[in-house]
């Protein structure tokens, strides 16, 4: 599904890109790819510190809107799809207004990255795909520590980690994204 903005509402620079007035640079959609507990939300918070940039975090929205409806991975998939249908046009409008957006939604499959591509391409915004390529054992250690601390909205079990990780598709150059890779435990 493509999200578009009607022509009268488009604000472009050089006929193409939304402008971030704060620094005269095109608005950017920052996307995050990495397994559970790879550090996506930590990086997202850091990226969102730049002026003219806002953070939209899937976990916060899902826990508030659908927390009582999520008891399995299948439940998560269903409510996440609902949230994307609502958020796509909203994100497009934020980009068109000149704001850069850090989208703390997992860009972990080709299908999800296609949805994100539609959002930024439909409005002519720039993009960065931040890929946190950490070993699975580090992610598992972080997940267990995060679960023990109880500070995260969701506490995925080891079984859920493996179930979700089975669907993980690392980004490839063939997808055409501007990829920023992180291959060490920097978070």
Task: Please tag this protein with its features.
globular; two-stranded antiparallel sheet; single chain; five-stranded parallel sheet; alpha/beta; Rossmann fold; 7 strands; 187 residues; disordered N terminus
How is the topology of this model organized?
Elements: E1 19-20, E2 25-26, E3 28-33, H1 40-47, E4 53-57, H2 58-66, H3 73-96, E5 100-106, H4 110-123, E6 126-132, H5 136-149, H6 158-165, E7 179-182
Parallel strand pairs: 3-5, 3-6, 4-5, 6-7
Antiparallel strand pairs: 1-2
Helix pairs in contact: 2-3, 3-4
CATH superfamily: P-loop containing nucleotide triphosphate hydrolases
Please mark out the parts with pLDDT under 50 across 5 or more consecutive residues, or reply none.
Answer: 1-17, 19-23
Radius of gyration: 17 Å
CATH architectural type: 3-Layer(aba) Sandwich
How many distinct folded domains? 1
Share of β-strand residues: 15-25%
Q: What structural class do you assign from the helix and strand content?
A: alpha/beta
Shape: globular
Just give the CATH class.
Answer: Alpha Beta
- CATH topology title: Rossmann fold
Percent helix range: 40-55%
Strand order of the main beta sheet, please?
4-5-3-6-7
Mean pLDDT over the residues: 81
Largest sheet, in brief, is: 5 strands, parallel
- SSE string: EEEHEHHEHEHHE
Separation of termini? Answer: 34 Å
């Amino acid at each position: 599904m493509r999200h578009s903005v009607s022509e009268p509402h488009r604000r472009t620079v050089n006929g193409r890109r939304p402008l971030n007035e704060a620094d005269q640079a095109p608005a950017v959609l920052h996307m995050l790819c990495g397994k559970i507990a790879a550090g996506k939300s930590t990086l997202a918070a850091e990226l969102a510190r730049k002026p003219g940039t806002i953070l939209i975090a899937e976990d916060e929205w899902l826990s508030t809107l659908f927390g009582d409806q999520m008891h399995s991975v299948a439940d998560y998939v269903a409510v996440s799809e609902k949230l994307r249908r609502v958020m796509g046009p909203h994100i497009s409008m934020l980009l068109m207004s000149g704001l850069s957006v850090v989208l703390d939604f997992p860009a972990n499959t080709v299908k999800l990255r296609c949805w994100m591509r539609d959002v930024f391409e439909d409005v002519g915004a720039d993009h960065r795909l931040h890929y946190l390529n950490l070993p699975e054992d580090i992610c598992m250690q972080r997940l267990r520590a995060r679960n023990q601390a109880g500070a995260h909205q969701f506490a995925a079990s080891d079984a859920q980690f493996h179930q979700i990780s089975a669907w993980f598709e690392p980004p490839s150059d063939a997808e055409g994204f501007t990829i920023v890779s992180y291959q060490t435990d920097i978070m």
